[in-house]
Amino acid sequence: MTEIDTKTDALVPAWLNLPEIAELLGVEVTRVRQLVKEGSLIAVRRGENRVLQVPADFIGDGRIVKGLVGTLTLLRDDGFTDEEMLEWLFTPDPSLPGTPAQALRENRGTEVKRRAQALAV
């Protein structure tokens, strides 16, 4: 869990707190905390109260967006910090088009993972 700078914060269109994520996934908040700890989700401290929040785009149809966990693993293996991963996922990529996060939500995970793998070269 990391602090987030204003630039990266501005890239993410919407955020959810951990209880909201738990409700959407149909699990306890402790399970969401475990998902963050395992690296399946990225949570950052935001706002005046420094509440842990997760980008809303990471959740769809009552589950973690397909391809997200593998993409996060690839980026982490490439040495990305949580903040760098968020910046990469939410920065528009004209070759996709859109952002990698949008592409994951649109079930274009293969394209996203290919780009993430290319970063390591």
TrEMBL record:
Q: Which UniProt keywords apply?
A: DNA-binding
For this UniProt entry, which residues form the secretion signal?
A: none
What stretches pass through the bilayer? none
**What range(s) does the Rv2175c C-terminal domain occupy?**
65-120
DNA-binding protein Rv2175c wHTH domain: from which residue to which, for each copy?
Answer: 4-59
- Source domain of life is Bacteria
MF terms from GO for this chain are: DNA binding
> What's the protein name?
Rv2175c family DNA-binding protein
Write down the species.
Streptomyces meridianus
